[in-house]
Amino acid sequence: MSFLGPFLALFAVSTLLPRSVHGAHVEPNDITMTIQSECGDIIDCVDVYKQPRLKNPLLRDHKIQLKPTMEPPKILHKIEGRNYSFPEQTWRRSGSCPEGTIPIRRKPTSADDEIANRTLPFFSYGRPTRETTQEDGKAGKLEIAAAYAVNGPYHGASAAIPIWKVEVEPNEFSKNYLLIASPHERHFTPIRGNSPPDIKNQMAVGMAVYPSVLGDDNPRLYIYATNDGGESSHCLNHDCGFIQTNNQFALGTMFQESSKGGGGDLCFVVVSIYRTTGPAVWWLAINEVAIGYFDPNMFQVPFIESFHNEMGGRVLDTRPGGRHTTTPMGSGMWPSAGIRNAACIAYYLAINNDGGDQVDDPINRIVTTPKCYDVKDLGRDLNRPGFDVVYGGPGGADCDQ
Fold it and tell me: What is the per-residue pLDDT for 11?
């Protein structure tokens, strides 16, 4: 039995996390009502106990947690005063899902499964390697401009993610995100300022323009998780790994407004990934509403604490026509354009093991092509909690110079 134990555990995790992922299947009988959004999205209100994740036979005995054992971090009341807005999702103008159901966006007809399976491996958050920073003739190159902190262990992170609409080249994406990660290697001594041995366990939330997968050129809310650094598992939204419990937010959907530079309103969504008290269960909160949690069973090596908190932007460059892509990162402006024009991850705070705010400066940088995209840590906001990180760039032919 001792020989079979590790094999059976690995088999279970492999069964829980499909290798080729896109689009969660919902049985028609599990839908209580359907909402046709004014933006074209179709939202199915699905019985919370019959959502796709709970259909897996390995979760037959899973007892769903309808509410977290602790409330999500509260920061909205602390950041009033700037001309920042936190819009609602567009589909909510057309209706709402009843209690006891969750909203699931129906897979858009314009999504392309072949392209999704080819490009989703670039959606993970591993460190750049030869394979991910050089074109391979099939998918392309992953461009990164991000800041990160390694002063853990942490019990999560919170921040305001910007909402910018940018034009991306075919089959590419541009995303803004907050990531927490932990290693598979458990026998190490955490040292503040030093990176963990690996970051194979990952959870992320953000806004992405990803037409081939999310259906159009609008920035859309997404979550992502993997238990192997993105080598074979890629859990996007409801594809695998996430159990939703709240009816207010739908993954893969857009918000009513996006940011406008040059003095206009800047639009954000406040996000938190945090561990509750007791067993290691990680909850996701959107605008201070806990909407669900990542199934602990998806992680072959338990995700107990975070040792790497990262924020910034990423772009998939498919080298269209043999040149660098013109897909922008963030708002398309350099960090030097300032917080009013460049994209900004605002009010980043780590979460300590008591669930409280932890002042945590993300002084480390990952920049794959400085001529193309860049990142700058603006330091601690003197008037409001947390740290601000600006990042981005326009892309284009100059990147190859």
Answer: 38
Mean pLDDT computed over 268-272:
96
Are the beta carbons of 355 and 345 closer than 8 angstroms?
no
Residue type for position 68: P
Q: How many CB atoms lie within 10 A of CB 319?
A: 16
Distance of CA 104 to the CA centre of its chain: 17
State how far the Cα of 268 lies from the Cα of 266, in Å rounded to an integer.
7
Give residue-wise pLDDT tens across range 15-74.
444 433 346 788 899 999 999 999 999 999 999 999 988 887 777 778 899 999 999 988
Q: Give the strand pairing for 141-149 and 364-367.
A: antiparallel
Nearest to 349 by CA among 312, 308, 386: 386
Q: Is the dihedral of CA 86, 88, 90, 93 positive or negative?
A: negative
Tokens of 168: 């991306």
| Residue 292 contacts residue 143 (beta carbons within 8 Å) | no
Q: Which residue has the tokens 């300590």?
A: 352
Other CB atoms within 10 A of residue 336 CB:
10
What is the rounded CA–CA span in Å between residue 371 and residue 382? 30
Q: What is the pLDDT of residue 263?
A: 66
Separation between Cα atoms, residue 252 and residue 249, nearest integer Å: 10
Q: Is the pLDDT of residue 8 over 50?
A: no
Beta strand pairing call for 242-244 and 266-275: unpaired
> Residues 6 or more apart from 354 whose CB is under 8 A from it?
none
Distance of CA 60 to the CA centre of its chain: 27
